[in-house]
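Hi all, posting the design record for the shared folder.

TITLE: backbone redesign
STEP: 1 of 1
STRUCTURE INPUT:
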């Protein structure tokens, strides 16, 4: 019967983008244009939004206008939109009123509902509160199953053990119980991922943009085709932004300017290899450096020196100091004492101000011992001879 559609999720429109704090509105606009253009070129019948399309209900009016224009533009091409609310953009009437006035905009209600498009049944529900804890898939009315089935909702699959909140939880065995071959267009997990359970395709397209520094991996949305034998064929369509992860060994660097040159080389090499409108860099410094270089790196990462103007990069220092705490302690006297104090220190013993704690909780630095090693190396460099 030939049905084509686009499946996207977790756009988080309106969220400040870590990599592009200045130009997020332009990027969101480019992203929606890209989705609309792909939809038109491939003659899709509809687009599925599987939750967290908006970051919250307080997004700027200009962001809502972008989405309203997007709906209208697609209506001109007879393309429908099926929309499931997630935990970030859970249903409140006032927020959705402008969109609901458009006749090609279909929003799922609080309980399971089925829309029909040609011979295809599209089942879904919306969050009506942020912290939806109900196991929705376990109460799906299976009598609504049709010949070809598509599901569209926001859920956390418990087996993934993800960092995401356990909202509207589901588990693999619940998917296996759905007897008719179905395509599950899911949202909530920001990383593109997919599984086959019994005859069912479970698909998270992930966020089409890297909204946070740690969101590496492929970014885009799915273009799906329902073939005549009820098989779903999908193609991943890359979005306007790519986040590239690179590791740089800085062992040979004698000072911060050499480190910076290496970063520049890596950035320009990546940008000749990868072509996309927006490229962001997640760069990890590795290797072993002298205590004085270690000190410079830590200082300049903090003051933003290594974020070279005009280039969007997040620099993480994973390098080690050439001089171990044990070697520092061999200096006896003061150094030995300092090393012993650092060794005994526990995270809970350190009074941190709220700003530092906040920063700490948002990074993926979980290793207090490596922070202690860095601090010791910097202190050693300052006290010894590198000041
Ligand atoms: Mn979510």
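Okay, here is what came back for every position:
SEQUENCE:
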């Amino acid at each position: 019967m030939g049905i084509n559609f686009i499946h996207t999720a977790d756009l988080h429109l309106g969220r400040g983008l870590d990599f592009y704090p200045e130009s997020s509105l332009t990027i969101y606009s480019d992203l929606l244009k890209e989705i609309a253009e792909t939809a038109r070129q491939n003659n899709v019948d509809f687009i599925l939004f599987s939750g967290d399309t908006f970051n919250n209900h307080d997004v700027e009016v200009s962001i809502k206008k972008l989405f309203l224009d997007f709906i209208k533009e697609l209506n001109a091409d007879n393309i429908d939109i099926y929309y499931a609310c997630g935990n970030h953009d859970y249903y409140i009437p006032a927020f959705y009123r402008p969109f609901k006035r458009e006749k090609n905009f279909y929003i799922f209600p609080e309980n399971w509902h089925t829309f029909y498009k040609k011979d295809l049944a599209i089942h879904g529900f919306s969050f009506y509160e942020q912290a939806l804890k109900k196991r929705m898939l376990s109460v799906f009315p299976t009598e609504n199953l049709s010949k070809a089935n598509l599901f569209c909702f926001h859920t956390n699959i418990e087996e993934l053990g993800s960092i995401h909140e356990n909202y509207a939880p589901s588990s693999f065995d619940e998917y296996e119980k759905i007897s008719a071959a179905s395509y599950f267009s899911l949202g909530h997990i920001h990383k593109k991922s997919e599984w086959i359970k019994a005859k069912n395709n479970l698909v998270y397209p992930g966020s089409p943009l890297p909204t946070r520094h740690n969101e590496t991996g492929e970014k885009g949305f799915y273009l799906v085709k329902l073939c005549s034998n009820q098989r779903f064929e999908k193609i991943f369509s890359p979005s306007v932004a790519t986040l590239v992860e690179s590791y740089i060994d800085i062992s040979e660097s004698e000072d911060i300017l050499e480190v910076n040159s290496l970063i520049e080389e890596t950035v320009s090499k990546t940008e000749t290899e990868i072509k996309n409108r927006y490229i962001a860099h997640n760069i990890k410094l590795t290797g072993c450096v002298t205590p004085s270089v270690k000190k410079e790196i830590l200082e300049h990462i903090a003051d933003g020196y290594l974020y070279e103007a005009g280039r969007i990069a997040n620099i993480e220092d994973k390098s080690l100091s050439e001089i171990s705490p044990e070697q520092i302690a061999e200096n006896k006297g003061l150094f030995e004492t300092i090393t012993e104090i650092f060794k005994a220190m526990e995270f809970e013993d350190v009074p941190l101000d709220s700003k530092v704690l906040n920063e700490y909780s948002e990074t993926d630095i979980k290793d207090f011992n490596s922070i202690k090693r860095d601090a010791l190396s910097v202190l050693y460099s300052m006290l010894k001879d590198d000041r």
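COMMENT: The pocket of manganese (II) ion is lined by residues 51-52, 86-88, 154, 188 (CB under 6 Å).
Let me know if anyone wants the other runs.
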